[in-house]
Specification:
356 residues; 46% helix; 21% strand; alpha+beta
Length: 356
């Protein structure tokens, strides 16, 4: 099917949906049809802008090349033509981006998991820094950052920490943060001033609802135990901590931050659903990416994606070869906007190239 025929098909479907929704028929499907209509509306707006600009280009070219036209009109047409020819590639790109298959997970909230990697106490301190960085970024976006669980070291570091981040299109902006983050700095305990390299792993999962992942009772085992914390903190006298095991995959989720066993179980099941949902997404993405090397959105948890070098004050994202010299603003204040925007743009460019 040609590009123009595809556009005609979309316009026709949009008109059909508009008529169906106005008629009041298909009441049972109203929600589904309404969402499809809403999704198509923004695409239709882009199609109409593209076709309007395309027609204007043809008209201006004809006017600018006409020997019979008034010289002033020809001059004006040529000036407008030059301007529109500069704008048209962006109009065309916007339309093609709108036509790309959407990641349905983009609209979802996200579950953030940060774990200390190699580097002992320094890695745990870095994990704590990363967790705070994402919390600050979430605040700057107007999102809600709800801590699920923190396993601390007692000296300010985190062995692991998780949170659910709620807001508008959270996953679409954070999904490229998954991977290994590396830090290079002089630990406060280092008397010789030697730079240490440590690492932490970040996983960002789309929050899965019950409709996304059905958990069968036969597939899960739930164990309860007494909660405990570092240095005797948060010790509970009841068996409120919960361990949920998904038998088919072997995935295990533990939750003990709440005093209520019921709340811990609900949180653990939410995380388990999200991990299972993400496993399926990773499988689909891997199949799609079989012919695409080094893509930003691989989500490979073992991939080294970013280095934070404190002595030089720089942060480098290795996937897009982008370096910013404002490490304090990024780590302390969560100023991640430039990286997020560049990663999204790079992914869009690669997907456009794939669809060409």
């Amino acid at each position: 099917m040609s590009f123009d025929n595809n556009l005609d098909k979309i316009l026709k479907r949009h008109t059909e949906l508009e008529a169906l929704l106005a008629s009041g028929d298909n009441v049972e499907d109203y929600g589904v049809l309404s969402k499809e209509f809403s999704d198509l509306t923004s695409i239709v707006e882009n199609i109409l802008s593209y076709r309007k600009a395309s027609k204007e280009l043809d008209d201006l070219r004809e006017m600018a090349s006409s020997a019979d036209s008034d010289p002033d009109m020809v001059s004006m047409a040529k000036a407008e033509l030059i301007q529109l020819e500069k704008q048209f590639p962006e109009i065309e790109k916007t339309l093609k981006l709108a036509l790309l298959p959407r990641d349905i997970a983009d609209e979802k909230n996200a579950i953030l998991e940060v774990r200390a990697g190699t580097g002992g106490d320094e890695a745990a301190l870095f994990a704590s820094d990363l967790f705070t960085m994402y919390q600050r970024y979430a605040e700057s976006q107007g999102w809600r950052f709800e801590i699920l669980e923190i396993s601390d070291t007692g000296i300010g570091g985190y062995k692991e920490a998780s949170a659910i981040i709620k807001g508008n299109r959270v996953f679409s902006k954070l999904k490229f943060e998954s991977g290994v983050h590396r830090v290079q700095r002089i630990p406060s305990t280092e008397s010789s001033g030697r730079i240490h390299t440590s690492a932490a792993t970040v996983a960002v999962l789309p929050e899965a609802e019950e409709v996304d992942v059905k958990l069968e009772d036969k597939d899960i085992r739930i164990d309860t135990y007494r909660a405990s914390g570092a240095g005797g903190q948060h010790v509970n006298t009841t068996d409120s901590a919960v361990r949920v095991t998904h038998i088919p995959t072997g995935l295990v989720v533990t939750q003990q931050d709440e005093k209520s066993q019921h709340k811990n179980k609900a949180k653990a099941l939410k995380i388990l659903r999200s991990r299972l949902y993400d496993l399926e997404r990773q499988k689909v993405n891997s199949e799609r990416a079989a012919s695409r090397k080094g893509q930003v959105g691989s989500g490979d948890r073992s991939e080294r994606i970013r280095t934070y070098n404190f002595p030089q004050g720089r942060v480098t994202d290795h996937r897009i070869n982008m370096t910013l010299y404002k490490i304090d603003a990024i780590v302390r204040e969560g100023d991640l906007g430039e990286f997020v925007g560049a990663l999204i743009a790079d992914d869009e460019a690669q997907r456009l190239a794939e669809s060409a």
